[in-house]
Amino acid sequence: MNNSVQTTQASNGRVVLSSADIDRALTRIAHEILEANRGAEQLVLLGIPRRGFPLARRLAEKIASVEPKINPDDILGQLDVTMFRDDLSRQPTRAPQRTQLPTTGIDNRVVVLVDDVLYSGRTIRAALDALVDLGRPTIVRLAVLVDRGHRELPIRADYVGKNLPTSSSERVRVHLAETDDGAEQVIIEGPATAGESS
Amino acid sequence: MRHLLSTHDLARADALQILDTAEEMAAVTEREVKKLPALRGRTVVNLFFEDSTRTRISFEAAAKRLSADVINFAVKGSSVSKGESLKDTAQTLEAMSADAVVIRHGASGAPQQLANSGWIDAAVINAGDGTHEHPTQALLDAFTMRRHWAKVRGLNSIGSDLSGLRVAIAGDVLHSRVARSNVWLLKTLGASVTLVAPPTLLPLGVSSWPVAVSYDLDATLDTGVDAMMMLRVQGERMNAAFFPSEREYSRRWGFDDARLARLDSLGLKDTIVMHPGPMNRGLEISSAAADSARSTVLDQVRNGVAVRMAALYLLLSGNSSSAHGSATENFERSK
């Protein structure tokens, strides 16, 4: 794919990352994680539902392909943050998802939280609270596919697929093969078309 | 869902949502830290006009595990015994900003009255009203059956229903709110239900219920049963002779050692034996049956906390004024 993809108009928004761009970004993040951690020792990747989990799985597989001693299932987990949100009483009821940790647990591990979009930072705040109830990692890092800015809390990502300056009236939609129909891509929708799909 | 008053009008999707949420709550109760902050700052009142151990403790544990504040209001020793009406009690709770009221009352329909009268804004959960309904008990029974049935069929219990499950409910159906709630919910979830009882302990109008009726427990077992639910003989509600003697009742409608052995001889290796408690051991269920590997009595108690956590969470967490369709959008805005 060439850069012309980035300016393609999707039917309901502007495509900013194609499937190949997403894959390249994840490959880079996997290598950055390995480099920062000096290997896959003590590493645990926890995806935040829904789209953070498939991204964490892909990262785990990429890490395993570089470090053949690693089994991706051994370092992969899912962390649900629904019950730890600070806006439960302001939003429609949301069903909690399963939290599943690797059999090794997270005590004394290097935990990398994985999510699709970093925006206000409130999901990550909830994730940090959820982690405290589950164990005590040595280090917690954050990997996101897209950082769109507009933080409301002092939280930043350690690994970013793409920094995407947006207006707060725009919406960023991540479509993944595991969770969504249609082409795998990241789209920015303008305020006029917000809420048309999903 | 605004209130949880009965299973009769509980939609299939709502019932499955409660059961699926309860699966996640059950996972939490297996953790070292069994507490979630979801209902922090919310107040749940357990308003019990009738004695109860299991249900009240279960609701209390559920509310506390979700970090809600719990007020236990037992009517004995309260101003209700001085003649205070349900309306006055409700308005007192309203003034104390209760967010949910879990009510058990001896009169059928009291929870509906509380929910629909406009006396109080709180969500109302029926924890057993007279001989009418006990929806959270039916939900925890369904949860227990669903886990078992999914295991038998090799499925994931999340999202699955009870289609194909054969349930027999035996005993004092007449006085049992548990049986009523179970009949409606099991029907909604696709199970087939047979009520087994002496004719004197079946309610008028049972012919219009979506169930088969039998007077013979052994004949029902012969046809094949996947879940055998025994009901408590409610001596305290019986003002007349409904059966000749306890001995005869036990012999004809009790789940005794012989019937436990009969399940094996019929080849029903996966059949479970359920009881909502408290049990009259030796009357409707024998000790051997209650303590056998088939018995789910303690699973039911354990699952009760998860199901009540799910009900409280679903009733109290959401903002009912927002359109459901905007949920994803709102959450994405707050990422």
TrEMBL record, chain A:
Q: What is the residue range of the motif PRPP-binding?
A: 111-123
**What GO molecular functions are on record for this protein?**
uracil phosphoribosyltransferase activity
Q: Which InterPro entries match?
A: PRTase-like, PRTase_dom, PyrR, PyrR_bifunctional
The keyword Glycosyltransferase is annotated on this UniProt entry: yes
Q: Which CDD domains match?
A: PRTases_typeI
Q: Which HAMAP family match?
A: PyrR
Report the protein name in the record.
Answer: Bifunctional protein PyrR
Gene source species: Psychromicrobium lacuslunae
Q: Return the broad EC class.
A: transferase
Q: Give the record's family classification.
A: Belongs to the purine/pyrimidine phosphoribosyltransferase family. PyrR subfamily.
Top-level lineage group? Bacteria
Catalytic activity reported: UMP + diphosphate = 5-phospho-alpha-D-ribose 1-diphosphate + uracil
- Keyword field: Glycosyltransferase, Transcription, Transcription regulation, Transferase
What does the record give as the function of this protein?
A: Regulates the transcription of the pyrimidine nucleotide (pyr) operon in response to exogenous pyrimidines. Also displays a weak uracil phosphoribosyltransferase activity which is not physiologically significant.
Q: Where is the Phosphoribosyltransferase domain?
A: 23-165
Q: Which gene encodes it?
A: pyrR
One of the protein's GO biological processes: regulation of DNA-templated transcription
State the EC number(s): 2.4.2.9
From TrEMBL, chain B:
Cited PROSITE patterns? CARBAMOYLTRANSFERASE
Cross-referenced InterPro entries:
Asp/Orn_carbamoyltranf_P-bd (IPR006132), Asp/Orn_carbamoylTrfase (IPR006130), Asp/Orn_carbamoylTrfase_sf (IPR036901), Asp_carbamoyltransf (IPR002082), Asp_carbamoyltransf_Asp/Orn-bd (IPR006131)
What are the EC numbers?
Answer: 2.1.3.2
Catalyzed chemical reaction(s):
carbamoyl phosphate + L-aspartate = N-carbamoyl-L-aspartate + phosphate + H(+)
Q: What residue stretches are annotated with the Aspartate/ornithine carbamoyltransferase Asp/Orn-binding domain?
A: 164-315
Pfam families for the chain: OTCace, OTCace_N
**Binding residue positions for L-aspartate:** K82, R177, R232
| GO MF, one example | amino acid binding
GO cellular component terms attached to this protein's record: cytosol
Per the UniProt entry, what is one GO biological process? Answer: amino acid metabolic process
What sequence ranges are listed for the domain Aspartate/ornithine carbamoyltransferase carbamoyl-P binding?
Answer: 2-146
Q: Which UniProt keywords apply?
A: Pyrimidine biosynthesis, Transferase
Cite the binding residues for carbamoyl phosphate. R54, T55, R104, H134, Q137, G277, P278
Top-rank taxon of the source lineage equals: Bacteria
Q: What class of enzyme is it?
A: transferase
* Keyword Lipid biosynthesis annotated: no
Instruction: Enumerate the NCBIfam families for this protein.
Output: asp_carb_tr, PRK00856.1
Biological role stated in the UniProt entry: Catalyzes the condensation of carbamoyl phosphate and aspartate to form carbamoyl aspartate and inorganic phosphate, the committed step in the de novo pyrimidine nucleotide biosynthesis pathway.
Subunit (UniProt) = Heterododecamer (2C3:3R2) of six catalytic PyrB chains organized as two trimers (C3), and six regulatory PyrI chains organized as three dimers (R2).
Q: Record's family?
A: Belongs to the aspartate/ornithine carbamoyltransferase superfamily. ATCase family.
Q: PANTHER family, from UniProt? A: ASPARTATE CARBAMOYLTRANSFERASE, ORNITHINE CARBAMOYLTRANSFERASE, MITOCHONDRIAL
In Swiss-Prot or TrEMBL terms, this protein is called Aspartate carbamoyltransferase
Q: List the source organism.
A: Psychromicrobium lacuslunae
Name of encoding gene = pyrB
